[in-house]
């Protein structure tokens, strides 16, 4: 909240009051870059609207509020799950020149995801959004960093206590699963693409591997990956991370080359980051199979 200007604070206060009066809205929280302390000039204000599946708020009420405050007629307001199964709908607004997003969240869905995470289970929905889809564990991060603005039943405060620490079973599963995917991709697939399809296949393999390394590094350090845009900057502050990880990634992906030899060199650079990451796991990662050379 420290990053918010007085006009932004006033806007949020007024919106929260009106949202809290809508039957079915169980909680309103500030999320996104403002809650994470990573907002920049022009960043959207993200307000998450939590509801119960058995008695959700009426979309017509959200629509009426949006139309009454938006700077322009016809604001976008979706039904539940209008944006997909994870980023499950909301509204895009501009109020007094300030971009404001409403984002729906089902309390029951969030609670189910937290329970699954505590048992070491997660989902990755690649079709939800670019570039890497939606990692279900981001829900835990959302809850941890959010600032409750309206929470009369204390539902969000209770959830925040559950996600304060990265679940141990989830940490083991994510590190093991994603480092295995990196090893499989870099050993069995990336060299073939480097020799045959050039930049197209090589860039895809390496970018995918870097994303998987990031998921493993976040888990290894007990942190929730919530935003691909800031992931490389965040990982630089971790205790367990290969030296100059972000710079090495940027250099490799930005200079793949033009020949199979250069593409294979780029693959080897990411392989080296993988080896260094495995060394940081203190044996937590073990390959599932011995891959053919």
CATH architecture name of the largest domain: 2-Layer Sandwich
Main beta-sheet strand count, sense and barrel state: 6 strands, mixed
Count the domains. 2
Summing up helix and strand content along with how strands pair, one would put the structural category as alpha+beta
Task: Give the helix level as a range of percent.
Answer: 40-55%
The ordered string of helix (H) and strand (E) elements is HEHEHEEEHEEHEHHHHHH
CATH superfamily of the largest domain: Beta Polymerase, domain 2
Shape: elongated
Mean pLDDT: 95
The fraction of residues in strands falls at 5-15%
Measured between the Cα atoms of the first and last residue, the distance is: 53 Å
Radius of gyration, CA atoms, in whole angstroms: 21 Å
CATH topology of the largest domain: Beta Polymerase, domain 2
Tell me the name of the CATH class of the largest domain. Answer: Alpha Beta
- Count of extended strands: 8
Q: Unreliable segments (pLDDT under 50, ≥5 consecutive)?
A: none
- Spatially, the strands of the biggest sheet line up as 3-4-5-2-1-8
Number of helices: 11
